[in-house]
Structures are given as C-alpha cells and as structure tokens.
C-alpha cells in the first residue's frame, strides 16, 4: 500500500498538472494513498509574481478536477507553508515531481536521510508542451499566451 506525495499551487489547473496528478494516482495504485500538498495563500503569493486564487478556491477546484477529469474521489490534501511539507518527516514511499520541482525532491531525501528516514522513490514526469513547444505553465496561462491545454492564444 504505497503512500505518494505530490504538491503544487494548482492555479489554474492545466494539462501539466493533470499529468502530474494522474501519475501520482498510478503510482499509488488502487490500495495506495495520494497526499496532495497544496500551497498556503502566503506561500503561493510569495512564490508567484501573478495573482493566485485563495486556498479554499484552489482546493475546491482541485477536488472538482480530480473527480471530473481523473475520476478520483479518494485522496488527502495537506496545506503547506514551505516546499517540504510533511515529506521530510512522515511515512511516504514515493514523490511525484516535474523537472521544475525535482531538485526539491532530492533535497527532501537529503533531509530524510539526516533524520534517519528512508528516502522517497522519485518519479519524475516530463513537461507537457504547448503547441509552440514551450512548456505549459500557469504563468503563461495567466499572461493569456496559452490556454490550459497548451493551445496558443496570441
């Protein structure tokens, strides 16, 4: 029964996020647990130069998308105020990351080793690319350059 960690701000939720979340649920399998670390308002706003919806709205959207797009009802959500969340101290087997967040996963494993915990197996997905062969990102969506599926708008 695998415990899988995955995290982000998830605003707006796009095809790259869906690929990340889908992989987390695949890794967990039917009997496993996926714990989604969702950034707090303070953390989200300090890391982003663009407006970000509040935590409750992002959580509501995340639940809806998981149900409607991935058919998932069973998962846990943890509000985090730093990039590590509970991954540095709690019992997890895997962490699912993008190339952008992979360095954080390696740092998490360093901290886990220092604390006498087993390292997490790191599962890294590839970026989802937009039509213009630049990765899909929430920033590009917020700027009106692409939509959530990577279709070029400008």
Could you please describe the fold and organization of this structure?
The chain has a 5-stranded parallel β-sheet, sandwiched between helices. It is globular, with a radius of gyration of 15 Å. The chain has helices at residues 15-28, 41-47, 55-70, 102-114, 138-142; strands spanning 3-8, 33-39, 76-80, 94-97, 121-124. Strand 1, helix 1 and strand 2 form a beta-alpha-beta unit. It has a single domain (3-128), classed as Rossmann fold (3-Layer(aba) Sandwich), CATH 3.40.50. With 154 residues, it is of the alpha/beta class. The mean pLDDT is 96.
Relevant terms:
17% strand, 5 helices, 154 residues, alpha/beta, globular, 5-stranded parallel β-sheet, Rossmann fold
Outline:
The protein contains 5 helices and 5 strands. By secondary structure, it is of the alpha/beta class.
CATH homologous superfamily classification: HUPs
Class per helix and strand makeup? alpha/beta
Strand order of the largest sheet: 3-2-1-4-5
User: What's the pLDDT, averaged over the residues?
Assistant: 96
Shape: globular
Low-confidence stretches: none
Number of helices: 5
State the separation between the terminal residues, measured CA to CA. 46 Å
- Domain count: the total is 1
**Proportion of strand residues:** 15-25%
CATH class: Alpha Beta
**Radius of gyration from CA coordinates:** 15 Å
Biggest sheet details: 5 strands, parallel
Question: What is the CATH architecture annotation?
Answer: 3-Layer(aba) Sandwich
Using the coordinates shown, work out and report the CATH topology.
Rossmann fold
Instruction: Kindly state the percentage of residues in helix.
Output: 25-40%
Order of helices and strands: EHEHHEEHEH
Number of strands: 5
